[in-house]
């Protein structure tokens, strides 16, 4: 690509059509996809019901701005909050959702401090990037938003840093970009309790873990947490840009008319897609994903954990990380897997990250794991260049 900034190192493959959990590229090859467009197309490609619902809205109206009533937006918000005493703000991406969450927390509490965690990722705009702990993506972009500090993830010592002068604590229940690092359930509970005891709001970033990825609508449900604010994006509309902030209804007075906004946020096309996604994530569907996810994790452990180049296998539901030894780069494995027809991701700490569409069959999940096993056993590879 010649006319776009080289902010991404791209693989020399151009997917042009998809079906279910498979992508076909302009090179004529069909790939099994374990990326979901980085945790986005969770319900697969050309999902028939979603296609029909989005087509229908494309023919009706695309955008009306937030100056007018938008019943579709309210329906999606209702599907997200259910019977809980919560309300929703819509935006267009994960970073915007976290940006809005930080703004809301500061306004609600009248305090400024935000405590984030080591190895966390919350996005690329200033507020979210300031709460992200990854030197590689922050270099040269400072100064950052003031009053954002960090505590060690999964460590007892972090609890002492949750003090009443903070507006909020922001965390991922499973750190995705950080290498699929699972939060310790007891530690997460302790963080939640300390927040409640100190009057500090708890923001849970479910941008990657939400929308069924881990076997429940939100991952925090499996850890029995009670966040004040939840942020969503990625899979919420299966590929149409959207983000959302879910917060307590009591915060409504601090998000009153004119306080915050977004031209595109809650756009009709995105809402039609999000409504379709939420309609498919029924309790029965989620139960199936949970069972399929357990099988997937067991299959990964059984086949990969003991291989010489594997340090550890981690994950929950259909989200997994395979940490490799220094001898083998995860990016090299990704490219080798492309040659045998499987698309995968990397994450920090030399992790091979897997985010297959939730609609992937157990047989296809197993097939992907077999390919990974095969490729991990084939090293050393001939030199690979992009
Ligand atoms: C991807 C991601 C974001 C950023 O989302 P964008 O839509 O790229 O802005 C934020 N938080 C987490 C946990 C993510 O995985």
TrEMBL record:
SUPFAM superfamilies tied to this protein: PLP-dependent transferases
Keywords: Amino-acid biosynthesis, Aminotransferase, Pyridoxal phosphate, Transferase
CDD domains: OAT_like
Presence of keyword Transferase: yes
InterPro entries reported for this sequence: AcOrn/SuccOrn_fam, Aminotrans_3, Aminotrans_3_PPA_site, Class-III_PLP-dep_AT, PyrdxlP-dep_Trfase, PyrdxlP-dep_Trfase_major, PyrdxlP-dep_Trfase_small
Pathway, per record: Amino-acid biosynthesis
MF terms in GO: identical protein binding; pyridoxal phosphate binding; transaminase activity
GO biological process: L-arginine biosynthetic process
Known cofactor(s): pyridoxal 5'-phosphate
Family under the similarity heading: Belongs to the class-III pyridoxal-phosphate-dependent aminotransferase family.
Protein name (record): Acetylornithine aminotransferase
Native species: Agrilactobacillus composti DSM 18527 = JCM 14202
Lineage: Bacteria, Bacillati, Bacillota, Bacilli, Lactobacillales
């Amino acid at each position: 690509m010649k006319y776009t900034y080289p902010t991404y190192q791209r693989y020399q493959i151009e997917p042009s059509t998809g079906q279910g959990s498979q992508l076909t590229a302009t090179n004529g090859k069909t790939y099994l996809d374990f990326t979901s467009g980085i945790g986005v197309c969770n319900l697969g490609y050309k999902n028939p019901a979603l296609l029909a619902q989005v087509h229908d809205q494309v023919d009706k109206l695309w955008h009306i701005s937030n100056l007018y009533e938008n019943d579709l937006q309210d329906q999606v918000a209702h599907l997200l909050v259910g019977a809980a005493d919560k309300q929703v703000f819509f935006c267009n991406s994960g970073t915007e959702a976290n940006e809005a969450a930080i703004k809301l927390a500061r306004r609600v509490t009248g305090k400024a401090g935000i405590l984030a965690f080591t190895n966390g990722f919350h996005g690329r705009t200033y507020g979210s990037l300031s709460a992200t702990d990854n030197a590689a993506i922050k270099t040269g972009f400072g100064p950052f938003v003031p009053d954002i500090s960090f505590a060690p993830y999964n460590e007892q010592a972090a609890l002492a840093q949750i003090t009443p002068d903070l507006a909020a604590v922001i965390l991922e229940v499973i750190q995705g970009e950080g290498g699929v690092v699972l939060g310790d359930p007891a530690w997460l509970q302790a963080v939640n309790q300390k927040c409640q005891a100190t009057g500090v709001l708890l923001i849970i970033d479910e941008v990657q873990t939400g929308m069924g990825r881990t076997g429940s609508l939100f991952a925090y449900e499996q850890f029995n947490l009670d966040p004040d604010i939840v942020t969503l994006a990625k899979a919420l509309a299966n590929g149409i840009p959207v983000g959302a902030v879910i917060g307590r209804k009591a915060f409504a007075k601090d998000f009153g008319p004119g306080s915050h906004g977004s031209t595109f946020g809650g756009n009709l096309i995105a809402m039609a897609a999000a409504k379709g996604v939420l309609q498919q994530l029924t309790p029965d569907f989620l139960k199936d994903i949970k069972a399929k996810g357990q099988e997937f994790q067991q299959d990964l452990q059984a086949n990969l954990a003991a291989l010489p180049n594997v340090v550890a296998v981690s994950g929950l539901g259909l989200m997994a990380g395979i940490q490799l030894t220094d001898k083998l780069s995860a990016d090299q494995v990704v490219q080798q897997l492309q040659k045998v027809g499987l698309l995968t991701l990397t994450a920090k700490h030399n992790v091979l990250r897997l985010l297959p569409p939730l609609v992937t069959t157990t047989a296809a999940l197993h097939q992907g794991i077999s390919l990974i096993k095969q490729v991990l056993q084939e090293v050393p590879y001939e030199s690979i260049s992009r």
